[in-house]
Amino acid sequence: MRKGVIRPGHVQIRVLDITEALAHYRDLLGLIEVETDSQGRVYLKGWTEVDKFSVVLREADVPGMDFMGYKVLNSDVLGQLEEDLKAYGCEVEEIPAGELNGCGRRIRFAAPTGHQFELYAEKEQTGKWGLSKVNPEAWPRDLKGMKATRFDHCLLYGPNVEATYELFRDVLGFDLAEQVIDPEGNRAAAFLTASMKAHDVAFIECPEPGKFHHASFFLETWEDVLRAADLISMTDTSIDIGPTRHGLTHGKTIYFFDPSGNRNEVFCGGDYHYPDHEPVTWKAEDLGKAIFYHDRVLNERFLTVLT
Amino acid sequence: MRKGVIRPGHVQIRVLDITEALAHYRDLLGLIEVETDSQGRVYLKGWTEVDKFSVVLREADVPGMDFMGYKVLNSDVLGQLEEDLKAYGCEVEEIPAGELNGCGRRIRFAAPTGHQFELYAEKEQTGKWGLSKVNPEAWPRDLKGMKATRFDHCLLYGPNVEATYELFRDVLGFDLAEQVIDPEGNRAAAFLTASMKAHDVAFIECPEPGKFHHASFFLETWEDVLRAADLISMTDTSIDIGPTRHGLTHGKTIYFFDPSGNRNEVFCGGDYHYPDHEPVTWKAEDLGKAIFYHDRVLNERFLTVLT
Amino acid sequence: MRKGVIRPGHVQIRVLDITEALAHYRDLLGLIEVETDSQGRVYLKGWTEVDKFSVVLREADVPGMDFMGYKVLNSDVLGQLEEDLKAYGCEVEEIPAGELNGCGRRIRFAAPTGHQFELYAEKEQTGKWGLSKVNPEAWPRDLKGMKATRFDHCLLYGPNVEATYELFRDVLGFDLAEQVIDPEGNRAAAFLTASMKAHDVAFIECPEPGKFHHASFFLETWEDVLRAADLISMTDTSIDIGPTRHGLTHGKTIYFFDPSGNRNEVFCGGDYHYPDHEPVTWKAEDLGKAIFYHDRVLNERFLTVLT
Amino acid sequence: MRKGVIRPGHVQIRVLDITEALAHYRDLLGLIEVETDSQGRVYLKGWTEVDKFSVVLREADVPGMDFMGYKVLNSDVLGQLEEDLKAYGCEVEEIPAGELNGCGRRIRFAAPTGHQFELYAEKEQTGKWGLSKVNPEAWPRDLKGMKATRFDHCLLYGPNVEATYELFRDVLGFDLAEQVIDPEGNRAAAFLTASMKAHDVAFIECPEPGKFHHASFFLETWEDVLRAADLISMTDTSIDIGPTRHGLTHGKTIYFFDPSGNRNEVFCGGDYHYPDHEPVTWKAEDLGKAIFYHDRVLNERFLTVLT
C-alpha cells in the first residue's frame, strides 16, 4: 500500500446468459447475490467482504472481463492517483458516482496489456454477510455451494507485461511478488500485490490484448478445495484442472469454467508477501511446475483458452 | 469375514533395482524397513500394522506383482480353506513356514484372472511401529515421507473377473462392495472386501492375465494426500493422476509410479461396507466419473499402463 | 463378526421434550428425520446408513437410554444367538416385528451392567440418504448442521463390566479392542467391537446400573469436528469438552449435551481393529491422558454426569 | 502500513535455562536455530521468514518479554518515526547496529502499558529456510515438531491500553482491527495491525505494567493445530487450553507454556483486516466467548498467569 491502493474491489464479467451465470456464481461458487441494477447487471460478493459488492455480471454477446477496480484509501488519494496516471501518460476516464450502485466516483484507465482498470475511494460498506458487527460468529450458517469467501484477484493475458508492471509499480505502488523469467531474461509473467496477498493481479505475456484468463475467489481450506471439486462434478460443470497446487505462490487450487466460458479459480493458502521481500522467481523453462506443481506439465487449454 | 479371511496381509512386488525401490517405498511412501532376507528380498510395513511386514520387494528383470497374501483367523481355518479351494478345483501349492521370514505356512493358488494369491494363519506380530503397547501415543514421531499407514489393497487386471469374483465369494467369503456393469450387463470391475473396507482387492477385466495395476496404501487425511502430491513433485517422481477423488468408493487419492514402473496409490477416506449391504453400481458408460470423479474422463495411461 | 453380529443398528434415547430433541438431533447433529410412529417416537438416521433408521427418540420423564440394538446376519443367526443367550443364563424377551417401524423381530436381554440390548436380523434398507444406488455422488447436497454420517457406538456405565465383556465375547463374538486396567489388574473399561471399528460399544465400571454416558456419531474429518464445535457455540448448546483427541482409540472428538441432558459425541478417525490384534491397554493411573489425550486430566463432569 | 511500519520483526524472550528453552522452541515449535551471539543469546526463526531471525532467547532470572521489534520500510522512515516518537513525548533509546547480529540500528521506546518496543530498518535477509529463491518447493523437507511458519504477534497485559492504542495509531500508523468494550464503553482490549493480519500486537488492560501473556506463531492448517496438540502431549509440555477457536479474530488455536513459564500460542486462520474496515467489537460481558469461542468461559489461568 505504498500509494494508498488497498485491495481489488470489484470485477465486471461479461456473460452470455445472466440467469445461467447467476446460478453459477451464486449457487455453485456460493457468492451472495446483492441486487440487480437498472441496466440489468447483477451484483454479488463473498461473505467475508465488508463492501456491498465485488462481482458484477453483465449480459453481453462475448464473454470476458469489462474491468477490474481497486479501492483506494480516500478521495485525496484518488485525486492524487488521477493526476499521477495522467502525468504518466494514461488517458483517464471518469465514471460518475452511482454508475455502479453504492459505488462512488471511479477513474478508469487502460493498462498496456489492453485491460481496463478502475480506482475508487468510496463504496457502501454493508458488513460481512450474515454476521453481526458485535460478537460476530465464526461464519454464517446459510452459505451455499463452494462458500467462496472473497473475490481475490484476476489473471490477465496481454502484450506489454513489462510496461504494465512498471505502471502498477510506479504509479499505483504495487510490488512484484512473483515472476516468471525466460532464458533471455524477459519477464513472462508478473504477480503484483498491494498488500500481503501473493497477488492482487497477475499478468502473463501474450500477443492479443485485453484477454481474461480467470477471476479467482478465496476459500479457507484444502478441504474446501475438495468440496469445490466435488460440486463441480455434481453439477456437471466444465473443469479445467485440479485439485492441485501451484508452484507460483504455492496456492492450493482448482480451475473450472462458468457457463459462458469464463474461467474461474477457487483456491486457499499460498505465500504471503511484504514490501521488503525479493520477488520469487520461476524459470520459464519450468513453467509446467510453476503453474501446476504436481503434474509439472501444462495442459494446452490453460495457455490458450481465454475470454 | 464370512469364512475366516481377515485382511490383506502382504504383497510381493518385483522391482528392477532393489536399492532404488527401497528408497522409493521407504523414503517416499514412508514405509518402515524391516529386514532383508537371505534371498535379498526387502520387507517393509506401514506404521499402524501390527504384523512384522506387509510389503516384500524382490529384484527381478520385469516389474509386476508376484503374489498377494491374506491372513486368516487360525490354522483350522487355513486347513478348511485349503480343502475348499481344492474342492472348488484350484491347484493349491504349499509354501513352508519361514519361506518368508516370520510367516507361517502359506497355501498358494491362482485366480482365474491369472494372479497368485496366498493364505496364511501365522505371522509374527511386532506391534505398531514406534508405539508402546501400553498407553500408546497417537503416532510415532520419526515417520518419513508420505507416512503411509498400511498396505490396503491391490487393483489387478486380467480375464475372467466373473469367475474370480465367484471364487472369492464362494470359497473365501468375500463380499462384492462395488462393481462396474457394462450395457450388456457384464461385470467389468469387481471391488471385493472381507471386512468393512471398501475393497480388500479389486479386479478389472482385461484380456491379458496376471497384470498388476497398483498397490494401494492408506493415509489418514486429505491433507496427507496433498503432502504426498508435494513429495511426488519434490522428488521428481513420475505421477499418474491426482490429487482427486474416485467415484467408486469415493476415496481421495493420488497415483504415481515406483522407479520400476509399478503403479502405487496412496489414498484416504472412502465408503465402508457391511456384509448385508447391496453392492454399489457404476455404469461402464460413466467409467470416467467412476474412476476419476472430478475430471470425469480417463487418461489413457490409467487403462493401459500395467506391470 | 465371529458370531454373525454385524453392527450397532439402533439406539433408543429418552428425551424430556420431543420437539426440542428433534431440533437438536436433526438440525444440529444433522441426522435425517425419517418418520414418527404411532407411539410418538421419532426415527432418524445418519446419511451414510443404508438402513431405514438408527436413532429413536422417545419422550419420557427421565433422560437416558432405553436400549441399543445390533443387526445380525440373518434369521438363522438370530435364532442361534437367542438359544445361546438363554443357554448362557440370560432372560430373553421377544419384541415382535413392526414394534419399531420397518424392523423385524427383536430379541432383548439385559447385560450385567444393567443395560438393555437387542438383536435383530431384518430392517428395511432405504439406502444412503440423498444418493442414487447407481453412480452415487460423493455426498448429498442438502445436509444440515454437523452432517453426522452414522450412529457409531454408545459408552455405558454400570457394574460388572467384566461379566458383560465375557457375555459379549463368548455369546456375541465381540473382541476386546481397548481396555483400561487398574493397578490391581482389574479391567475398569472395556471397548468392544464386532468389526474393524475401535468400538461398537464401550463400558466403564460404575456402581449404579444402566447409566448412559453418551451416544456417538461419526464425522468424516477433523475439519468437521471444528465445524461441530462452531455450531455448538452458535446454537448455545451445552458443551462438555473438545475439540480434542482421545488416548483410547485416538479418535478426534467433541462432547456436548442434548436439551434433555443426554451426552452426545461426534468424532472422526481413530484406530482400526482386527480380530487377531491384541487389545490396546491404558493404565487407570493415566486415565486423564487415556480419555483426553491433550489435557491429560479429566473434568469431573465427564465421570459423573450420566443419564 | 500508513506510516511505513511493515511487520513484527522480532521478540526477545527471557528464559530461565537456555538449553531447555532451545529444545522447546526448536524441537517442539519447530523454529529454525540460527546462531548464538557473544552474549549467549540464541536466535531462531520460522521457516517462511526471509529475515535472518525473529525470536531471541535470553537466559535470565525471571521469564517474560524484553522487547518486541518492528521492521520499517527504510532508514528515512526510521528517522521520521524517531522524530515523531520524540515529538509525541516518548523517550527514545538508540541501539547501535550489530547489537543483535545481522540487525541494523534500532530505536527503542516504552509504551504506556510498560512494554519495550523497537523499530529498525535493516536486517539481514537470508531467505526462506531450506528453499531456493528460484523455483522454490512448497516447503522444506526437514522441518521439526510443530513446523511453526513465522513469529506472528504478542499479546501483552498492562495499564493504559487506550494511550498505547493512540500511540500505535497516531505515531506508528496501526489500525484497530478488533476490540473488547466494557459496559461503561471503555476499551478493555485492543488488537492492532499494520497489515492484513488480524493483529500485529494486542493489548489487554491490567494494573501491572509490562506483563507478557504470550508470543504467537503461525501454522498453516487446523490439522497442524491438532499435530501441535499431539506433540504437546507426547512431550509432556504444560498445556493451557486448546485446540479451540477464538471469537476475537476467529483464529484456530492452542496455548501452552515454555519450560520457563512463558505462554506460547500456535494458531492458523483468522480474519483479515484492511485499513478501511471498521473494528470488530466484542462485549466484555461476553469475554468468555470472545476468547474461547467453543467453551464460552475463561479459565482463570488465561487471565492471571503472566510473565
List the secondary-structure elements of chain A in sequence, H or E.
EHEEEEHEEEEHEEEEHEEEEHH
What is the general shape of chain A?
Answer: globular
Beta-strand residue percentage of chain A: 25-35%
The helix count of chain A comes to 6
**Quick check: average pLDDT of chain A?**
97
Poorly predicted regions of chain A: none
The largest β sheet of chain A comes out as: 9 strands, mixed
Query: What is the alpha-carbon Rg of chain A in Å?
Result: 18 Å
What's the total count of β strands of chain A? 17
**Helix- and strand-based class of chain A?**
alpha/beta
Our measurement of the CA-to-CA distance between the termini of chain A, rounded to an integer number of angstroms, reads 30 Å
Largest interface: A-D, 39 and 39 residues
Oligomer: homotetramer
- What is the percent of helical residues of chain A? 10-25%
| Spatial order of the strands forming the largest sheet of chain A | 14-15-16-13-9-12-11-10-17
